[in-house]
């Protein structure tokens, strides 16, 4: 859904925009090589990842800008949703927030064109992508039953293709235990400043063998209710609010994973996931301190997201190669958001509703080497058939607009990557190619007027990598690659309005692309106690797709021109000499700018012009984490803390020019004994209100106010 296009424009641009919005399996688990507590911090070098699709590789041996977090680390760092995860990634930021179920993220400047069109970050659930055409929203993953998350920064155009031009996030869910019954549970109770009611959540999982050693089932689910903090006023924010603490959020999900291993060479993994996120009113409001939404009339706002997702992965070893077939089907059920809008005289207060549904079928068949020889590679074919429906309705007392857009894509790709170890593995060159062909159609109706458009984009993306391993502890690498995104489809009226303003455009935009050059280093010091990773990157963005406000007030789309981003990513993990104390740090500093903006585009929007910083790209982000564990008798005392620093960023809405730098602080302390754990925690300890994102002066979003709570956990797996 083109939510952001409409939410960012409150006045005439919003109305015009609405009018024309005609808008693997068991062997690939992360492993802890230590024999210590299952909840003890995991050395980054000991985590095994499968992001290269050619077998399991230790994280510190992957010649890419890659991170991995196992489930225990995610819990330790209090990661509950995508916004929490983004804080752990160098160069990542949140580009858009509407409600609890609709967030858009950006890597290294990829959000420069705004939250429109297809995704720029690929989101994978195990072996298959989550997402639909014309939608950048991240999946509202519940992190309780996640085995690990792998994050690849930079274009992944060869292995992950369309939708991964800025990077890829892969969520690996836990497998059943085929030999014994295991279970886990979590209960949490907390209180947020400004909220009258408590927050509470619970989650549980149970795994049991159906046929010992052969067939197992794992079932998990959770319920999370976050109390509302914002008051709602019918008119100006004076007197008694119409509703108090109204924007509460309820999230729930259920998941089942069936794993069958008929023999040592074969595995079949079937997964089903259903989630629902319901919020009364929205995260974006008029004021954050105190939190309130004003001029809502009698409109009861909401944000609703529901979907189910089914996948099946078949893996079979044939001597020196492994054959994998991964299939998924995603069904996003009807949902969307509703909000009251006050546009002043003569229109007054109206109602904006954005909604829709979607479906997505994907199949990938690939073969990869699986022996220990110097030659390693993967090759495969990919197919996608997806459809998304976007609807809008804008209603004022004397004015109304409504319509819908159906976007369809049927695309296929062939891909391959191959590497060879030279000089006993000291030098490893790799090359990869992917050819992609898309058939895309859009069918739009706006106030009864129907417009159809279509495009047939294709692309050849590539990757070249050279890894140098001077010792077992150090690696240097050079990585170059390209990314690609299909063009947005729009109405002829939109295209004509853009062309009349002197900017080349059409009903099908030119696909945007990026080229990334990167050099990196990762290694260990102090007998492995200190691990570091550094990457320097240079990215060129070409034909950036962007929203465009035409001179007649019609919101449309055009390729604005080119941009670039240069920066450095840093990661560090240090098991300090003080036994039990581990320090982690990530950081990014970058310089980004528009380099070749079409003159007419810059004339229409002077905030997008040559030399100006890319939109939705903070100057820096840093995070420091400390964790401490100490045995006390039969128990373990632990404590964690973190500090996050986000730099200044420019926004696409001229009425809120930029987001100022801000900091977030967290801490926890608890005790663990046997399989049980109790933890006292504090989030947003400085009670920062923001804004941390904005779609306009009355659509501000910030972090949840200071929250103090307690968590109880039990875990046998």
What this model shows, in words?
With 717 residues, the chain is mainly beta. The chain has a single domain, classed as Maltoporin, Chain A (Beta Barrel), CATH 2.40.170.20. The longest helix has 9 residues, at 492-500. The two termini are 39 Å apart.
Gist?
One of its GO terms (cellular component) is cell outer membrane. With about 725 residues, this protein is mainly β.
Offer a few descriptive terms.
mainly beta, Maltoporin, Chain A, 22-stranded antiparallel beta barrel, five-stranded mixed β-sheet, 39 strands, disordered N terminus
List the helices and strands and how they pair.
Elements: H1 3-7, H2 12-19, E1 48-49, E2 57-58, E3 66-70, H3 71-76, H4 82-86, E4 92-99, E5 102-107, E6 121-125, E7 128-130, E8 146-153, E9 167-173, E10 182-192, E11 199-211, E12 215-226, E13 231-232, E14 249-263, E15 266-280, E16 287-288, E17 291-293, E18 302-318, E19 321-342, E20 349-369, E21 375-396, E22 399-420, E23 427-446, E24 449-455, E25 458-471, E26 474-485, H5 492-500, E27 512-525, E28 530-549, E29 555-575, E30 581-597, H6 599-604, E31 620-632, E32 635-646, E33 649-650, E34 658-659, E35 662-673, E36 676-683, E37 693-694, E38 700-701, E39 707-715
Parallel strand pairs: 6-9, 13-17
Antiparallel strand pairs: 1-2, 3-8, 4-5, 6-7, 8-9, 10-11, 10-39, 11-12, 12-14, 14-15, 15-18, 16-17, 18-19, 19-20, 20-21, 21-22, 22-23, 23-24, 23-25, 25-26, 26-27, 27-28, 28-29, 29-30, 30-31, 31-32, 32-35, 33-34, 35-36, 36-39, 37-38
